[in-house]
Write a structure and sequence with these properties.
Radius of gyration: 21 Å
Mean pLDDT: 93
Strand content: 15-25%
Low-confidence stretches: none
Number of strands: 9
Strand order of the largest sheet: 1-2-8-6-7-4-3-9
Number of helices: 9
Structural class: alpha+beta
Order of helices and strands: EEHEEEEEEHEHHHHHHH
Shape: globular
Length: about 300
């Protein structure tokens, strides 16, 4: 009797729902099992969609997990309709047209089913609403996984609680910051706070790599210094005092002996990334970009 053929694995489909419209994504991620499984374990989930600031022609949202890079390639090679994960920033992205020049190593996870037109229309809507009325959506899978509940070191409990809280809702102090009025207020603090949080996020990711290579002492010290600096800036300059307190607690945790450094960095990466996301969603990038171009043109043509 000939041996039985193993059934081919059917990759899951994801469903992205925005109001009454739906985009179906077929995963093709056998080459990136850790990323695929981490994603599926978080679904279903509510997400908020963001526009691209540099590469253009893609929409993105923030993933609530940290996974090492696996099977990465050049983002410029991702075709329209491609679905990808950017490990360095924990972004999930859908590309709807040719990208502008950018350098990033990403993991291609799949592609949308059907025509790219609806995705392109969604990208236009996300760009128009960014900063005014962020577009919310739900992401679900036809093959959900049970989320794991790894044990948490008791020393991490306050940071874990802060991470869960900021993923549940935006800090109230962001609204208070935006309500300020004065010279270059609220734009100055808003843009700088987003920049400080973004840079901290990227720095913590780099220090995570150092820690995973074995140099936990150096990684913890450098990460703690970055957290303290970011706390001073977003608290003292931008008025986000509660968020700054969380970063200060994170710095103290990393300086304490016996702290599980990689686990602490994972929590702080997710905290800093979500803080940056809440701030980014309140910046009207497209109108600001047009004002900058108009101001430059007016200056260049002055008599």
């Amino acid at each position: 009797m000939p041996p039985r053929r193993k059934p081919e694995m059917v990759e899951p489909r994801l469903t992205l729902r925005i109001s009454s419209s739906t985009i179906t994504i077929r995963l093709e991620a056998a080459h990136a099992p850790r990323t695929r499984d981490a994603l599926l374990a978080t679904l279903p989930a509510g997400i908020d969609l963001h526009c691209a600031k540099i590469a253009g022609n893609h929409i993105l949202w923030h993933a609530p997990f940290v996974v090492d890079a696996e099977a990465t390639g050049d983002v410029m090679q991702v075709p329209p309709g491609g679905f990808l994960y950017w490990p360095e920033r924990q972004f999930l992205e859908l590309v709807f047209d040719a990208l502008q020049a950018e350098s990033a190593a990403v993991t291609l996870l799949g592609r949308i089913e059907g025509d790219v037109g609806p995705l392109r229309a969604l990208g236009t809507e996300v760009l128009a609403r960014q900063g005014f009325a962020p577009l919310s959506a739900t992401l679900a899978s036809d093959a959900p996984m049970s989320p794991g509940t790894p044990p948490t070191d008791s020393a991490l409990a306050p940071i874990v609680a802060a991470r869960r809280a900021i993923w549940a809702e935006a800090p109230a102090e962001i609204a208070a910051m935006i309500a300020r009025d004065g010279i270059n207020l609220p734009l100055g603090p808003l843009v700088y706070a987003e920049g400080y949080a973004r840079q901290l996020h990227e720095w913590l990711w780099r220090m995570r790599g150092v820690a995973r290579s074995g140099d936990t002492t150096h990684a913890a010290r450098a990460a703690a210094d970055g957290l303290a600096l970011a706390a001073a800036r977003i608290g003292g300059f931008c008025g986000l005092h509660a968020s700054a307190d969380v970063l200060e607690r994170g710095a103290a945790l990393l300086r304490a002996p016996g702290t599980p450094v990689v686990a602490a960095l994972d929590e702080l990466i997710l905290y800093a990334g979500r803080l940056a996301a809440w701030l980014d969603g309140r910046i009207a990038w497209s109108p600001m970009n047009e004002i900058a171009k108009q101001a430059r043109a007016a200056w260049n043509t002055r008599s």
